[in-house]
Write a structure and sequence with these properties.
A: 256 residues, alpha/beta, Rossmann fold, 2 domains, two-stranded antiparallel sheet, 6 helices, 26% helix, B: alpha/beta, five-stranded parallel β-sheet
Chain lengths: 256, 309
Amino acid sequence: MDIIVCVKQSYDVQQIKFDPKTGEPMLAGAPRKMSDMDRRALEEALRIREKVGGVVKTVSIGTPDSRDVVKEIYAMGADEAYILTDLKLEKADPDVTARLLSEMIKKIGNYDLILSGAASTDGYSWQVPAKVAAHLNLPFLPNAISINVNDAVMVDCDLGDAIYDYKAPLPCMVSVSLEINEPRIPTLSAILKASRKPFTEFHIKDFEVDLSPELEVISTAMPKVARKNFIVDASDASKLDEVRKIVDELRKENVI
Amino acid sequence: MEVMIYSEDFRIFRELVSAAESLKPDRISAAVIGERSFAEEARGFCDRVLFVESELDYSPSEYAEMLYQAVNSSDPQVLLVGGTAKGTPVAAMVSVMVGEPCATEVTDLKLTEEGLIVKRASFGGVAISDVKVGKRLFDRIASPKIACIKPGFFTPAEKTKNGEIEKIKPEVKKRVEILEIREKEVGEGFEDADIIVVAGRGVKKKEDLSLIEELARLLGGVAGVTRPLSADLHWAPNWIGMSGIPVKPKLYIGVGVSGQIQHIAGIRNSKIIMAINIDPQAPIFEHADYGIIGDLYKVVPKMIEILKS
């Protein structure tokens, strides 16, 4: 079983600071981490390999500072990592990303199953896996909560109103949800070994892909809603009557 | 100018009608896949219904092919798709087929001389971005710019039209097999609730949710939970938050909710936000109009007592 996993080095959204004046995110030097759902896709690939054998490869694209993700990919146990980084990819939209990933996958060739997170932790477009599937003309199953492989692949997908149990021929593309598994934490020795393991770098010039995004982000800001911040302390049993003040305020607001 | 809409969910379909109307198009068309009764019902909301006859149950590859055929049977410049777990992958695949961009998680949109501009929830809903969709509008036949509209941001439209219905029956290759469809437990509906009381990780046991429910009932509201209580502990089938159900009630009360940014993003449009938390440093207090620092197991019964008296 040859599995290719798309892995993104995302911004760590929980740690992004927003400029208090403009509300814009301060991304320069912001902490990065492997995208949560991609990590689960990689974990799932490793579990499939442990069951039926095979090779787990990963493809990643991003700006040069996303190269660190390779170490983590190897520490978790992937066999081969492929990455394409370029400063020009800072503004890559889901189309550019999906096209480059598909081209990389074509170049690597030889795959039975392609996995990816359903959405990335920072971009949340929910588009890239569907678009990779469309470019490669593969059947696509989104939001998997379980995957079983034999000569075909059985995938249970959480589609909001129902769980759909699909059976798809190989090769096919599956995106995974957060609930599919609990990813392993690499051992210290695996982390140490990972930093010495070679990986393959692709370059923009290897592919004929137009890098100018069709989705142009004009501005981004954290919306600020002014709140009254009227807080009472009722942490002590003797102060429990403070609760009454808040109930009174809510009555004045006419909401209760 | 034609706007085409598609959603598999009728309430969201009506939200799309409102989103489409906000663009002031010459006509609104709707693509309906499979369900004849849905297509009949849809006539009341748009000028033309493209009814795609099909027996196939949902899978993104097949449904994308059918929606693509519906687009080609008309000439929309904008395609709006309900941004659900089923709708978004279909929109993304159609985007590749028509060679036009798709914006997702869209909460508002407008047409300007420069083209289609949308507001989208970015960084998981923490921030809002203004995004231009495509360099130009109207450049080729049947090549719409696409936007997936996040449910809950447009008011569902009322019936005002009596559109024509046109059947198409494209040849679609079946690519995957459905072994079983297991309906999920339907959670509480929050769309119309004026008051929502949400339980967070501060609630220790599933049985203790009854305390939150009692408070909600007493206020004439609805009780919900945060993501960890639903996705990790399975105490409820759905959760309040940007990754679950975004809400904007008149009064939101977070009980033992710390206020992770994605949760805050999903409740940000509430009129009044109130929080009960034992930790004075809990981030939710920054976003709250009213807050009570204290043990929810003492504060909530006290609140109930005051409300009853």
